[in-house]
Amino acid sequence: MEDSSFDLELELSSLPREKWWADDYLYQLGGFWFLPQSIEGVIRVNKNFRPLPSDVILASFPKTGTTWLKALLYSIVNPSSKHRLTVENPHSLVPFLEYFDSYGKPPYESTTVVSPDANHCRRIFSTHMPYQLLERTLDSSDCRVVYVTRNPKDTLVSTWHFVNKWEKAREEPWPFEVAVEKFCCGVTPYGPYDDHVMGYRKLSLKRPKNAHFLTYEELKNDPETHVKNLAEFLGCPFEGEDVEGQVREIVKSCSFEVLSSHEVNKSEDVLPGIPLNLTLNSFFRNGVVGGYKDHLSDEIVEKIDALTREKFHSLGFMYGI
Ligand code: PAP
């Protein structure tokens, strides 16, 4: 059992806060910003989570391909149960570490997270928490971490659309200019984006056997190769007859077109387990690369590209423009 003996009010009162949208605040912890709905989970995961060596942890900044990777990892680790994706949302099959159930129980204490494939017995979790806050936890474990990232401009546009689907936005939409400004200064849930990406990049360079770094764009470009690489990395390579056929089937069943066509993923019902009242269909919009071109002016593109050059390119990470 985890030790939850800390005074949340006291912890929160010591954290910096900043206005994010309308009258909502974000809390700052370890240089990153968190929603009030996730900060308790983030603190508790940071204090208590001890991964098993067999655990698979999908890490990502919000809106960079989490739902897609949840579907892919679930199918790779649980090949005989992958049909569940036709009736369950990927977020119902792979829980976020930092969102606890209605009794306050963390997913890593739940017995139902264990893989349904009897011969595998692995747990898959996801998290939006930055590596900087999980460094001790992950460095002391043999678990496998998969990190997915996406170019900052598509990430920003996807975030803006997503937040404007929240119930609160019906009364007070999140203005696009505010979204751009907050994204660029890092005051966005789990931001700053670039520090988040660079944290996991550092982990993948430091411990390549334990951390696999990939981008939404490369996955879109050649999903078959990346699905095979993921399976190898997780220690469950495709075997037997017609490996190519098995890979093609997973790629297809997890594609945006197929996943978003299932009734469950078109539903306006609220996804249980995340206290943000998110509807099941809100994780699917259009899933394309470069869609930002329809939203961002040349001036904003130049502003974000300048930040990308400074934060990524100057450190040798030639990505994001
Ligand atoms: P989350 O962080 O809230 O879980 P996440 O899944 O990371 O969200 O990102 C959602 C984005 O992935 C959406 O992008 P868009 O707004 O630019 O369209 C969503 O459409 C896209 N997406 C969801 N499922 C897939 C998929 N199977 N293939 C490709 N993109 C997908």
From TrEMBL:
The keyword Lipid metabolism does not apply. InterPro entries: P-loop_NTPase (IPR027417), Sulfotransferase_dom (IPR000863). Belongs to the sulfotransferase 1 family. This is Sulfotransferase. One of its GO terms (molecular function) is sulfotransferase activity. The gene is LOC105162773. The keyword Zinc does not apply. Keywords: Transferase. It is an enzyme of class 2 (transferase). It comes from the Eukaryota. Its EC number is 2.8.2.-. Residues 53-315 form the Sulfotransferase domain. PANTHER family: SULFOTRANSFERASE SULT. It comes from Sesamum indicum.
